[in-house]
Amino acid sequence: MSAAARLPETDALIHPVYARMLRRLLLQTAVDPAPVLAAAGLSAETLDQEDRPLSLDTTQRLAQAAMTATGRPWLGLDLGGQTPVSMHGLIGYAAVTAPDLGAVLQVFARYSTVRNEALVWSLESGEAGGAVLRGRECADWGAARGFYLDAVVSATLRLVEAALGELPDGLWVDWPLPAPPWLAQYQRFAPVRFRFAAAALAVSAEAPALAWPCLGADPRAHAAACRACEAELRTLAERSLSRRVAGLLRSQPAGRYPSLTEVAVHCALGRRTLMRRLAAEGTSFQALLDEARQARALWLLRRTRLPVEEVAAQLGLADTSNFSRTVRRWFGCTPGELRRQAPAAAGEAVQPGYT
To answer: What CATH homologous superfamily does 240-341 map to?
Structure first.
């Protein structure tokens, strides 16, 4: 199904702390992170100075560029495995102060979207008193799907290990992808066992494992951390309109962006109400439209050989001189200069999420 045929459930916003971790990992592997970040329209300065979440297409490009630069298709495992508890923010604190593994899984199921909106966990009863943490993917990661799932699961397992002191027997991971040639890389998480080619992502814990106590169990600290996570969830809910509009704009077919009135109708709101609510969230329709066009322009100029006139047309801009001025305002250089920074592959590649 094409992106134009459905509205994404989320714009799949990812906390920038994970991109900072990836940059550090690249440095550890003697890979210059600058061109990798540039492939995603990022720089070390923007990552250090801004806490604005990264969109799906930005994160996709970053992951693919990093795997190519390192030659490690299992790079997501490395990234997740090196993520310290502090990088998970309030979720990490709530997990390590929980009473046992069962409560840790409850933290994941309830609060994971505070840091990552591209995957939603739910906790269900398992066989013989066990539990199953099921993951529902809310975004199409395309060629970066394996990287993303590797990073999420390895980071989750490392957080469990930090909370319990070790990974207990009785943990299973159902993997929704075929077993890769680098299967041995998953052995770093022993005694956890992986089952590949599963219908969906899931982490199962047998009943004895659920009772494993956390080393830093602290009822008062855990309750305080959970209250803070609840506040973060409320903040996300209040900001859902701007993310819904951003997702709608990014999912539009080439050359066609809806007007403010059309978006208001889609959201079942009046024009003034939409403008007022977006302003209350610190943004505007025009700002979100600019971001959508900017992301598409960056991809088309760096990843395809389309003429500049065609790129402008796909952004809904018929005047190429105006497009050139706009690109300079966005990126500080001309379309030609931006294209030369990252030569496109032969052919007309299509960005995941765009048609």
So the answer is: Homeodomain-like (1.10.10.60)
